[in-house]
Amino acid sequence: MKKGIIRGFIIIIAVAAIMVVSGAMYTVKPNEYVAVRQFGRIVTIVDNPGLHFKIPFIQNIQVVSKATRIYDVPLSDVITKDKKSMIADDYVLWKVVDPMKYIRTLDAIGSRAEERIEAAVYNALKNVISSMNQDEVIEARGEKLTQMLTAEANSDIDDYGILILVTEIKALDLPDDNKEAVYERMISERENIAAAYRAQGEAEAQKIKNETDKTTSVMKSNAYKDAQVLVAEGEAEYMNILREAYNTEEKADFYNFLRSLDALDTTLKGSNKTIILDKDSELVKILYGSSFDFTGIGSEKSAKTDDSSETDDNVKADGNGKE
Nearest-CA neighbor of 45 among 9, 1, 97, 95? Predict the structure, then answer.
């Protein structure tokens, strides 16, 4: 019997020891904070993952998640600086960064934290949107507006040990009653901007065209001037050649004779071979030998010319020089 009592006592002691040891140990996970409380007061915050010890039956623990959480904020109706109503649908990414404040102010209750976050985000939306015109809000949508809202919201939530990582607007829409008017105004503004770009492009094109026309006119003028200089030089050279070729009276008379024959040949083109010449014409003199001495025919044709001039002032000659 004594052995049974001793065995039972040993078992009791072993169970008590196991309970004491298990009550003295706790585990901290990588995504957790553990607050160690003693008689309800927080004595330490442990965030190092692993196995830790506490005083059994006197100290207890409270686990707070350090993971990033998402909260979908209800729709908010805000007013812009130019008194335009807009409806914002946004969400928040947040986490606990100071578990001591989080436990003392919110008792580490997630629903309470979301209530504070909702109020902070609404105040941030109201302050940021009300400081901008509707056009400015639309232009700032995206990263710029997200950064402004996040910074504004964090200024109200810092006392709760919470950090808002992102406050981003999923949709920023207009009330149905003024949506159509705003769209029409935006289209009109974009058309005005497009017209301004087109006018600027046309002005630049006309400027380029004018400069090109000016350059072309200058080039043509210079080319025409150079051509006229070349023509004048050519004519001067031509006259010099003629002057050198007919620098004596005999050569000049021969030149005049050739020119007269060329003129006569040009005149007698076609089927009509008859011309009427004045008696003092150089061609008459040539034909009758009075201005150039042809062998054997000069004196004879000269006499015929004198006889015919007494009776008629004109001489009729055919293409062979006969009367």
Answer: 97
What number is the average pLDDT over the span 256-269? 76
- 236: part of which helix (H) or strand (E)? helix 179-245
Q: Please name which of 151, 158, 41, 44 lies closest in space to residue 96, comparing C-alpha atoms.
A: 158
Q: How far apart are CA 150 and CA 162, in angstroms?
A: 12
Is the overall model pTM greater than 0.85, yes or no?
A: no
CATH topology (fold) of 69-175: Tetrahydropterin Synthase; Chain A (3.30.479)
For the record, the structure tokens of 194 come out as 């497009």
Q: What is the dihedral of CA 196, 201, 207, 209, to 10 degrees?
A: -140
Q: Which residues contact 90 (CB under 8 A, 6 or more apart)?
A: 73, 76, 121, 125, 149, 167, 168, 169, 170
* Mean pLDDT of all residues belonging to the chain: 78
Return the domain boundaries, the chain.
21-65, 69-175, 177-245, 249-317
